Automatic annotation (TrEMBL):
Any one Pfam family match given in the protein's UniProt record, by short name: Anticodon_3
EC number in record: 6.1.1.10
InterPro entries per record: Anticodon_Met, Met-tRNA_synth, Met-tRNA_synth_2, Methionyl/Leucyl_tRNA_Synth, MetRS_core, Rossmann-like_a/b/a_fold, tRNAsynth_Ia_anticodon-bd
Name of the molecule in the record: Methionine--tRNA ligase
Catalyzed reaction equations: tRNA(Met) + L-methionine + ATP = L-methionyl-tRNA(Met) + AMP + diphosphate
UniProt signal peptide: none
HAMAP family from the UniProt entry: Met_tRNA_synth_type2 (MF_01228)
Binding-site residues, Zn(2+): 130, 133, 155, 158
The keyword Hydrolase is annotated on this UniProt entry: no
Methionyl/Leucyl tRNA synthetase domain residues: 8-368
Cofactor dependence: Zn(2+)
Assembly mode: Monomer.
Record GO terms (molecular function): methionine-tRNA ligase activity
Gene for this chain: metG
Length: 520
């Protein structure tokens, strides 16, 4: 049985037919911020990401490029998907590929178990299949084509015609789980979030569920159905199982018990797979359902969903090469309410970089440390009497620590950052009001100067700890400059405000240097 002691969080595993765009990086960063936050809360946090490598679309792309599908997948994993994690500074605990033996063998165990317990039967299927989605489409999912496809019905997502397929297939008796799923959504309102996603899933299941075709026999790039090797497992059925095969299902019971169930962060376009098919599969197998499925919104560029196929794809390194990975992470987590659609623009990124990161946070850190160097030879003062203004800052530190912790519990990353930024703004206002540069002019104000500087240094320490999951590079530098002991990532985030300062500061380079070049 699961002991649920860990915070296990996943991204979707990404399809290796193409290269990453900022939509993929956005999902990775969100899951990584949550994992880092929980790690810093003293939990056993475990972040899984990886790649989905089977299916007809991969086979076709590989063939078109004159290589085997495995060679194609190897190339994309090494040249595109693993580098993406470095580009946006992801600290994942594992990376699973659906071609890993540990996945294939244990996915087969799962399938055999479902077959032996009567959840799978043989049937005939005819339907419209979109190779882009790797999914059979209902007639209501299709729209009228335009241009070269005028007069045909096309996939609403890919704008390409679907193929009419007729196959002998193995089917999963998903229809028998509709009532159990509805009861799950009812009894555990947090199972699918945010509320808009939950409502969509409930109304979908209320229309009734069909059984799910889970095998294909017209091509062979996939996991073999264990009792019939003329069939391979449907790519989504295969892919979803990564969340348990990576966590030890079938081969490491201790690990699986510790990690499972997971929190799944997914784009809302694949919500049904995660909130309907996946829990039905687990219910059939007698495995606990996920802790939560969170469907985030789409990134819009010029009002269109970000995707390579719509030609609006932006490579993450187009942003990080200029602004750095911290700014990428901060911008997307701050500017977009997690769970809602959000628009990306270079202008907004540039403006927030300058006003919030460079002027708001970076400049605050540089000024405070420079004043400690100038007025106290770098030694952090030990202040005696704190004024009301100093105590107010202390109070804000505690308040925003609690508010941010609460927000992260709801996966409201944007609210957590907004709360933390209240401290950035208050500290800036505090420095302006206290005028330490004036206090430094009169030896009679020495005690007051020291109280102001130590208050500002403590505030910065609290910011370093609280912002570490979001901007790990800048906060590591700041922590070192503040004379913090150990790594900032080892500091308890839920007690960030308790830090009372190190012995000395050391010089700090600009955390967010001015960017001269125009971009976009
Ligand atoms: Zn499609």
């Amino acid at each position: 049985m699961s002991d649920g002691s860990s915070f296990y969080i996943t991204t979707p595993i990404f399809y290796v037919n193409d290269v990453p765009h900022i939509g993929h990086a956005y999902t990775e960063v969100a899951a990584d911020v949550l994992a880092r936050w929980h790690r810093q809360s003293g939990e056993d946090a475990w972040l899984l990401t990886g790649t989905d490598e089977h299916g007809q679309k991969i086979l076709r792309t590989a063939t078109a490029n004159g290589v085997t599908p495995k060679e194609w997948a190897d190339r994309l994993v090494e040249t595109a998907w693993k580098p993406l994690l470095k580009t946006v500074d992801i600290r994942n605990d594992d990376f699973i590929r659906t071609t890993d033996v540990r996945h294939e063998v244990n996915a087969q165990k799962f399938l055999q178990h479902l077959y032996d317990s009567g959840h799978i039967y043989t049937g005939e299927y005819e339907g419209f299949y979109c190779v882009g989605c790797e999914e059979y489409k209902q007639p209501s999912d299709l729209i009228d084509g335009v241009g070269e496809y005028a007069g045909q019905q096309v996939c609403a997502i890919h704008s390409i015609p679907c193929e009419l397929l007729h196959e002998k297939n193995y089917f999963f008796r998903m229809s028998t789980f509709a009532d159990q799923l509805l009861a799950l959504y009812e009894e555990n309102p947090n199972f699918v979030q945010p509320a808009s996603a939950r409502n969509e899933v409930i109304s979908f299941v209320k229309q009734g569920l069909s059984d799910l075709s889970i095998s294909r026999s017209s091509f062979d790039w996939g996991i073999k159905v264990p009792w019939d090797d003329s069939h391979v497992v449907y790519v989504w059925f295969d892919a979803l199982l990564n969340y348990i095969t990576a966590a030890g299902y079938g081969h490491d019971d201790e690990k699986f018990s510790r990690l499972w169930p997971a929190t799944h962060v997914v784009g809302k376009d694949i919500l049904r797979f995660h909130a309907v098919i996946w829990p039905a599969m687990l219910l059939a197998a007698g495995i606990e359902v996920p802790r939560q499925v969170f469907g985030h919104g789409w990134l819009l560029v010029g009002g269109e969903k970000m995707s390579k196929s719509k030609l609006t794809g932006i490579a993450p390194n187009q942003i990080t090469d200029t602004f750095g990975s911290d700014a990428f992470r901060y911008y997307f987590m701050r500017a977009i309410s997690f769970g809602q659609d959000g628009s990306f623009s270079w202008e907004d990124l540039s403006a927030r970089y300058q006003s919030e990161l460079a002027n708001g946070f970076g400049n605050l850190a540089s000024r405070v440390i420079a004043m400690v160097v100038r007025y106290c030879d770098g030694e952090i003062p030990v202040a005696g009497d704190f004024s009301e203004a100093d105590e107010l800052i202390r109070g804000t530190e505690k308040r925003v620590t609690d508010a941010a912790t609460l927000a992260i519990g709801h996966l409201a990353i944007h609210d957590a950052i907004a709360a933390i930024w209240e401290l950035v703004d208050e500290l800036n206002g505090y420095i302006t009001a206290q005028e330490p540069w004036s206090l430094a002019k009169d030896p009679a104000d020495r005690d007051r100067l020291e109280a102001v500087l130590v208050t500002a240094v403590r505030g910065l320490g609290t910011l370093a700890v609280l912002l570490s999951p979001v901007v790990p590079q800048a906060t590591a530098k700041l922590w070192t400059a503040l004379g913090g002991i150990g790594l900032v990532t080892d500091q308890r985030i839920d007690r960030a405000w308790e830090w009372t300062g190190g012995p000395r500061v050391s010089p700090l380079e600009a955390l967010f240097p001015r960017i001269e070049a125009t971009v976009g």
